[in-house]
Design brief:
The protein is α+β, with helices and mostly antiparallel strands and about 160 residues long. The chain contains three helices and seven strands, in the order ααβββββββα. A hairpin with a 5-residue loop joins β1 and β2. Keywords: Disulfide bond, Metal-binding, Secreted, Signal, Zinc. It comes from Sinanodonta woodiana. InterPro entries: Netrin_domain (IPR001134), TIMP (IPR001820), TIMP-like_OB-fold (IPR008993).
Length: about 160
């Protein structure tokens, strides 16, 4: 009987590991895809200035509570590309939604640090981003990518 319990516990642990692994699996888009006019992506440089954790109903919960999403207030530094839905920016600040399962993949946003963020703006003018988009600290963006972002290099979208 004891070996059966050990077997069941082992299976449950294995399923948990598989679930965490799958949470980080997706086809990340390239900078070329993000910046190509054929894609409906918004690409910005911004700094996180505050964060709130949200439950499934969208209500703010305690910082230590389990929550599926985070709502960041972001300071817009630069817009590289806009999608078809405009990002709502008031006094240089916009809202970004971010699934907290991104923490499982090692992605967290540090307050007051600049990031290049690729996402999709939804009907309410809120930027949504996740691990399958691109979120990269500005100090990790290489010169070639900076050239693409600033429009100094041409992007060939014919193969997309």
């Amino acid at each position: 009987m004891e070996w059966k319990m050990l077997f069941v516990q082992s299976i449950l642990i294995l399923l948990g590991v598989i679930q965490v692994t799958n949470a980080c699996t997706c086809n990340k888009i390239s900078w070329k895809e993000a910046l190509c006019p054929k894609r409906d992506k918004t690409v910005v440089r911004a700094s996180a200035i505050s964060v709130e954790r949200l439950n499934h109903e969208g209500n703010v919960v305690d910082a230590e509570a389990s929550a599926p999403n985070a709502r960041y207030q972001m300071r817009l530094e630069q817009t590289f590309r806009t999608g078809s839905t405009p990002l709502i920016v008031k006094k240089g600040i916009f809202t970004m939604m971010f699934p907290l399962d991104n923490y499982l993949c090692g992605i967290t946003l540090t307050l007051n640090k600049e990031y290049v963020i690729v996402g999709t703006v939804h009907q309410k003018g809120i930027l949504n981003s996740n691990t399958c988009q691109k979120i990269l600290p500005m100090d990790e963006v290489d010169d070639k990518t900076k050239s693409l972002l600033n429009g100094q290099s041409k992007i060939d979208c014919t193969d997309l």
